[in-house]
Amino acid sequence: MDNSKRTVVVTGFGPFGEHTVNASWVAVQELKKLGLGSEVDLQVYEVPVEYQTVQSLVPSLWKQYHPLLVVHVGVSGMATTVTLEKCGRNSGYKGLDNSSFCPDSQCCIVGGPDCIDSVIDMESVCKRVTASGLGVAVTVSKDAGRYLCDFTYYTSLYLSHGRSAFIHVPPLGKPYSGEDLGRALKAIVQEILELRDHAGEKLHCQHHFH
């Protein structure tokens, strides 16, 4: 077993519109305080709400860290739960970003598939986190909203062949605090890593002699 630390990159978004404090970045900073244990090197990034920045930043995170996992976190004004997104969509990006820009093609990757699913079994992660009695409601969704969240997720899924996750959080105080959201992120990321390890064991079990 390789003892080098496993790197996990978690991103939150900066302010936009009425979200002058973005709950996603608050939650990610709380996660950073909690950490993911001594085995995991956790890197966090605040992502500006700009399509063009996302297009350059997301590939650079994958290149720089070769992470085991990248988890993007965003806020949704409509969410009342912590929501695990199953897939990212390529087209339909008409909303203007903080630079009043939107892609001419209204696409993430011209010619890319319409939809890319995460290889992570979000239903399992949701069930396991819910069963752990966290005190924060977790649900699963198939629509990340066709704005910067969805755009970032699709871009990351495309680059990583599905090895990314996206989590939507509600605005602060509706109903959860930043600390609550940080705890929820920690539980979710740990479940994803555990599921990933089990999947890996299945692949390698023929090499282990008990």
From TrEMBL:
Active site per the UniProt annotation: 85, 149
GO biological-process terms attached to the record: proteolysis
Catalytic activity: Release of an N-terminal pyroglutamyl group from a polypeptide, the second amino acid generally not being Pro
Cellular compartments per GO CC: cytosol
Enzyme class: hydrolase
Broad class of the protein's primary localization: cytoplasm
Cell location: Cytoplasm
Subunit-level organization: Monomer.
Name of the protein this chain belongs to: Pyroglutamyl-peptidase I
